[in-house]
Structure formats: structure tokens, C-alpha cells
Amino acid sequence: MATAKKSSSAARKARIEEMRRAEQARERRNRILTIGASVLVVAGLVVGGVFIVKSQDGKKSDTASDTTSSGDGKGHFVTGTDGVRTWTGKLARNHVTGTVNYPMHPPVGGNHNQVWLNCNGDVYTKAVHDENAVHALEHGAVWVTYTDKAKKSDVDKLAAKVKQTPYSLMSPYSSQTSPIELSAWGHQLSVTSADDPKVAKFFETYVQGKQTPEPGASCTGGTM
After folding, report:
1. Which of 64, 135, 172, 196 is 20 to 30 A off residue 46, Cα-Cα?
2. How many CB atoms lie within 10 A of CB 127?
3. Which CATH architecture has domain 77-206?
């Protein structure tokens, strides 16, 4: 009997010990799972926080007023043998709600208003906002501008040319140095006469030309 009791007691102790080891193993697994879950939660919060911050930054850059720069602050025009000036610096393409301090006049690119200026052969008799016109350039338009030093006959000829040319627009621009300027995204040409052969060549090259950041984008449905 004593031997049987001892055997039973030993077996019970063995089962208890086995159950204790099993319980300890479960506790270790649970701790590992808990720690793992906590790490994932923290990582998720960190990633989510970074995403929110970046999203907010993106929204700020897309909607905030830009009154300082249209690009990276560096760049200048280089004049080719055909007389066309090409801007060497980076031209940013963010949408902004305020005014932009363009380094050239008329501007040939840079941050701009989210609404483009209608450029389906539109001729404006009053000055337009640079920020809307630049958006039209982004769509591949050629922008013809002139001062009061341009001859009326030249203005009339250029207006007729623009009216017949989709993806072009025209408006007066008092602060430019040349009587007549033709601008496309990143490119500009100064002329003194509408009969200059360079005018037709500029239209041929840059209306929906290779320089266009958004070829095929609409030139209607914007602002007038």
C-alpha cells in the first residue's frame, strides 16, 4: 500500500510539474505575442503619424500661398541660335493659391494657380494673372504678350494667328522689355514684328511641343 501511495504521489507530482511547465510555456508565448502585438501597434502608429505629417505637408505645398519662388531659386536664360531663350533652372509645378514671384516676365513656368487660363485661341484685351497663364503653358500652350510699344498692326496680326491656333492665348503685358514676347513652358522669344519668321517657327515648335509637362491637357473649362 505504501508503495502504491508513493507511486501515486509521484505521478501526481509529475503531472503537476508537467502542468506547471505547460502553464509557464503558455505564459511565455502570451508574453511574446503581447510584445509582438505591441511592437506592431507602435510601428503602425509611427507609420500612420509619418503618413499624416507628410499628407499635411503635401496639402500645405499644394495649397499654400507661394510669394517667394517659382522653382529652386536657381536658373537663367540661355539663348539659342534661333533666338529662343531656354530657362536652365528647375521650374516647379505645385499648385498655389497666392501670388508667385517669378524670376522672369512674362513667366515661362513654375508654381501656378490650380485653375488654368483658357487657351483655346483666346485673345484677352486686358492683363491676365501670371499664375493662371503659367498653368496654360503647362498644358502646352503658347502665350503671346505685348506692350503699348507694339504696333497695332502687329497686335492685330498676332491676334488673328492666336484665334486660329488651339493651345494658344494672347494678352497685354506691360512689364516685359520687348514689344512682343512669345512664351512656352521653359522657353521664350522676343520679336519686334509679327512678320518675323521666328513667330511661325515658335508656334510650330512649341504648341503642344516636346517641352509640354502635361500634353493633351485641356485648354478650355478653366478661367477667363
Report:
1. 64
2. 13
3. 3-Layer(aba) Sandwich (3.40)
* Residues whose CB is less than 8 angstroms from the CB of residue 188 and which lie 6 or more positions away in sequence, other chains included: 77, 84, 85, 87, 104, 106, 108, 181, 182
- Cα–Cα distance, 109 to 112 (Å, whole number): 8
pLDDT one-digit tens code per residue, 138-179: 999 999 999 999 999 999 999 999 999 999 999 999 999 999
Is residue 194 within 8 A of residue 158, CB to CB? The reply is yes
State residue 30's pLDDT score. Answer: 53
* Contact status, residue 149 vs residue 197, Cβ threshold 8 Å: no
pLDDT at 98 exceeding the cut of 60: yes
Q: Please tell me whether residue 38 adopts helix, strand or coil conformation.
A: helix
Beta strands in 9-109 (DSSP E): 77-79, 85-87
pTM: 0.70
